[in-house]
């Protein structure tokens, strides 16, 4: 083992490739905190997380003032111990998004460092369950798009070999039904259509909408209610045959346990950047496996491809490119499936020159 000798913090602000509008928000900025951890042997691991346009400076201050100083001098291989210590160090701000996002950047860097020291790719070191994972796309399903654009994107995804598309919902019911129906008619029965409400509905509205969506054979209804409405999700799950998907707005493994124990969801969409890193992500994935529930993570496809390949119950990777501007090559795709990298580490080919060029002013700091 080797102790952590240096922690370097930066943040870049990436612009999404397409306009992204859902039922509650539109975001045009993707703040991306990046952490580089170097051990006493000179091996460096790189980690990251993200926001969708707000909170990035707060995450960077938490990293700079609290988390990064706490890991300098620690044994880099003691990832579980470090994660638990950081959790208790920030007990006054957990469970919460900003703390989880900051911890994720540290934790993913430590896992990258571990993989590089072991000369293994993440998908093998974390489990090695499979060599490819099916893809579905979200990039062409945003709520502001016309129906014709949804159809065109789904047909293109199908022709590319993808197995599904996700459509945002939240328009009046008859409009949502018409949009989903048009896509279903175009792609046929063998192609998955997922829907995402982004927490926009009340319980009664969600139950009513689910009744209309059922005839369209959708793969799941994602985030139909506010994430903290556990009882509402229980009521909804009992009232519909549509699988209910949750997870991108849950920030603790314990919250996933409650949802699974109470039958409040049937698809887990745990997000590395929001659960606090790879360490808790793997706990949630294996917990879901014990309940015979699939893991279909939210966003971060460049990292989630390796984690999905590591566990046996991962079903999908969500195609939303995030890192193209700051990497030298993208995620490998073959026949509509995501292929994890066999390079040591997280499998992300960072372009550090471009990261340096795009670094947000005032966000860079180094701790020794």
UniProtKB/TrEMBL annotation:
Keyword Magnesium tagged? yes
Q: Which residues form the Mandelate racemase/muconate lactonizing enzyme C-terminal domain?
A: 147-243
Alphabetical list of InterPro entries matching this protein: Enolase-like_C_sf (IPR036849), Enolase-like_N (IPR029017), Enolase_C-like (IPR029065), Mandelate_racemase_C (IPR013342), Mandelate_racemase_N_dom (IPR013341), RHMD-like (IPR046945)
Q: Which UniProt keywords apply?
A: Magnesium, Metal-binding
Q: Which SMART domains match?
A: MR_MLE
Q: Which CDD domains does the record match to this protein?
A: MR_like
From what superkingdom does this record's organism come? Bacteria
Stated name of the protein: Mandelate racemase/muconate lactonizing enzyme family protein
The protein's organism comes out as: Mesorhizobium liriopis
């Amino acid at each position: 083992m080797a102790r952590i000798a240096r922690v370097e913090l930066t943040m870049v602000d990436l612009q999404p490739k397409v306009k992204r509008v859902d039922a509650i928000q539109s975001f045009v900025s993707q703040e991306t905190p990046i952490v580089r951890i170097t051990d006493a042997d000179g091996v460096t691991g790189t980690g990251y997380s993200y926001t969708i346009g707000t909170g990035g400076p707060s995450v960077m201050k938490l990293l700079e003032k609290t988390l990064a100083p706490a890991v300098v001098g620690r044994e880099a291989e003691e990832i579980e111990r470090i994660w638990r210590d950081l959790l208790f160090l920030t007990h006054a701000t957990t469970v919460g998004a900003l703390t989880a996002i900051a911890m994720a950047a540290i934790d993913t860097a430590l896992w990258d460092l571990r993989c590089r020291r072991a000369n293994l790719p993440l998908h093998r070191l974390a489990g090695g369950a499979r060599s490819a994972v099916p893809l579905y796309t979200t990039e062409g399903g945003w709520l502001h798009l016309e129906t014709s654009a949804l159809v065109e994107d789904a047909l293109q995804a199908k022709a590319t070999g993808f197995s599904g598309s996700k459509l945002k919902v939240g328009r009046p019911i008859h409009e949502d039904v018409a949009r989903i129906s048009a896509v279903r008619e175009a792609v046929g029965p063998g192609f998955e259509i997922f829907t995402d409400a982004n927490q926009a509905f009340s319980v009664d509205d969600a139950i009513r909408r689910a009744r209309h969506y059922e005839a369209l054979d959708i793969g799941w209804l994602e985030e139909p209610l506010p994430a903290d409405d556990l009882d509402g999700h229980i009521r909804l799950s009992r009232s519909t045959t549509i699988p209910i998907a949750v997870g991108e707005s849950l920030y603790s493994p314990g919250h996933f346990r409650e949802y699974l124990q109470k039958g409040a969801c049937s698809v887990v969409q745990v997000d590395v950047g929001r659960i606090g890193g790879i360490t808790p992500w793997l706990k949630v994935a294996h917990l879901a496996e014990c309940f015979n529930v699939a893991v279909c993570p939210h966003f971060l496809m460049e990292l989630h491809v390796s984690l999905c390949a590591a566990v046996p119950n991962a079903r999908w990777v969500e195609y939303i490119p995030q890192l193209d501007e700051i990497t030298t090559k993208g995620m490998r795709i073959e026949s509509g499936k995501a292929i994890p990298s066999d390079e040591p580490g997280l499998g992300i080919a960072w372009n550090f020159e471009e990261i340096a060029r795009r670094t947000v002013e005032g966000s860079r700091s180094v701790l020794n």
